[in-house]
Specification:
Amino acid/polyamine transporter I, mainly alpha, germination, 0% strand, Spore_GerAB
Length: 364
């Protein structure tokens, strides 16, 4: 498959598409449960870490022009180490989009399609994702741009609406000095929803198309997502207080507790939230699926990209049905988060160090 070069804007929206997904629903519960009303500070720490990871990936792509991570990793570390790295990415991406699809199907079934079998919802999501994957990265990028704007508007309107109905007293204490250790201990939880920037590794950067402004685009997008997350958490807490820890889909629960006169013409405001949430989830699943197919196709060049995509999606559907309950699927999802930290942080840092030692950035 020929390399597809994307504009700075498209790359930034791909980052938005892969990061903002399933995590926006349980985000508030997880953060407040670990760090209380000081969750905003814990998130701020995670945002700084995510920005550093994003900058490293962008830097590697910019220095090793027109190369994807498997190509410049082979130059830096050799074939064997690269094979290990790429295997980690394949496993991570595969289980990420597989388990996310299962969890989302369970959530949709419980929320709006109670009588619909899980396998039907899974199959529908996988078929739509397959169609998007075979259309290529440029088409997915355009989709992320369109969906991204809708999701951002939807999230901002929802957040502002919640703040107008909530009680600011629920945010107190805003910050507790004695709990600083607790905020840092919450990093494993707060960093998870910000993972996804590793997808930059499969996008070849071309300096004629992606000038130095690419750093501003990627870093700004991650910072913007982080701010959205902070606002979402604070908005949900103003509505529900500490009781948010009892709701997996805290955002949805908060919306259902509000009565906004401006939206009286809508019988179900929560339905609108579910709609833009599903759009964000679809972008995430599709991008992870594309990443899986992209890397596997690198090692199976004799097979057509579309055929590899079909096999991966079919296998993913089978694996998605293995967990018997949503709790089992969520348990697997936690371990995927640990792999995400390795894929987004550990591997690029190793490649950055080698790049610096071998002075590839100076040569380029």
């Amino acid at each position: 498959m020929l390399k597809e070069h994307l504009t700075n804007s498209q790359i930034s929206f791909i980052i938005f598409g892969v990061i903002v997904g399933y995590g926006i629903m349980p985000l508030t519960k997880d953060i407040v449960e670990k760090s209380g009303t000081g969750g905003w500070f814990a998130l701020l720490i995670a945002i700084v870490i995510a920005i550093i990871f994003t900058y490293i990936f962008t830097y590697l792509g910019y220095v090793h022009e027109n190369k994807t991570i498997d190509e410049y990793s082979e130059v830096l570390t050799g074939k064997f180490i690269t094979y290990i790295f790429i295997s980690i990415y394949i496993i991570y991406y595969f289980f990420a989009f597989t388990i996310t699809t299962r969890i989302v199907s369970e959530a949709v079934k419980l929320s709006i399609l109670i009588k619909t079998p899980i396998w039907t919802l899974n199959l529908l999501i996988f078929l739509i994702s397959y169609y998007a994957v075979i259309k290529g990265l440029k088409s997915i990028a355009r989709l992320c741009e369109i969906y991204g704007v809708v999701i951002i508007i939807g999230l901002l309107v929802t957040i502002v609406s919640l703040f107008t109905q909530g009680k600011l007293i629920n945010l107190q204490p805003f910050f507790v000095v004695e709990d600083i250790k607790t905020y840092f201990k919450a990093i494993p939880v707060t960093i998870g929803p910000l993972m996804g920037m590793e997808l930059i590794g499969i996008i070849p950067l071309h300096r004629k198309i992606n000038n130095k402004k690419i750093f501003k685009y990627t870093v700004f997008m991650v910072a913007f997502i982080g701010i959205l997350y902070i606002l979402e958490v604070e908005a949900c807490v103003t509505i529900m207080g500490h009781s948010v820890i009892h709701y997996k889909a805290a955002l949805l629960a908060a919306v259902r507790r509000t009565e906004i006169k401006a939206f009286e013409f809508l019988s179900r405001l929560d339905g609108i939230v579910i709609a833009f949430w599903l759009m964000s989830v679809f972008c995430t699943i599709t991008l992870w699926a594309y990443g899986t197919v992209f890397f596997i196709h690198k090692y199976c060049r004799k097979m057509k990209f579309n055929r590899v995509a079909f096999i991966v999606i079919a296998l993913s559907f089978i694996v998605s049905m293995i967990p018997k309950t949503i709790n089992q699927a969520e348990e697997v999802y936690k371990y995927i988060g640990y792999m995400g930290f390795v894929a987004a942080g550990v591997i690029p840092i190793i490649l950055l160090i080698i790049t610096k030692i071998k002075k590839y950035d100076i040569k380029s």
